[in-house]
Specification:
By secondary structure, the chain is an all-alpha fold. The protein has a domain at about 1-30. It is built from two helices and no strands. The radius of gyration is 15 Å and the shape is elongated. The termini are far apart.
């Protein structure tokens, strides 16, 4: 069974994961973060 699926690789990154990464990096730099997120909008 193949490990990589071309269609899956073409999907864009999950935007909320990117935002979480940006928040984590800012917190590591010592910045205060006010998270107004309301959870995953499924």
């Amino acid at each position: 069974m193949p490990e990589d699926f071309p269609r899956i690789k073409r999907l864009p990154p999950y935007v909320f994961a990117q935002v979480d990464q940006l928040k984590l990096e800012a917190r590591r730099r010592g910045e205060d973060i006010i998270d107004l997120g309301m959870g995953n909008p499924d």
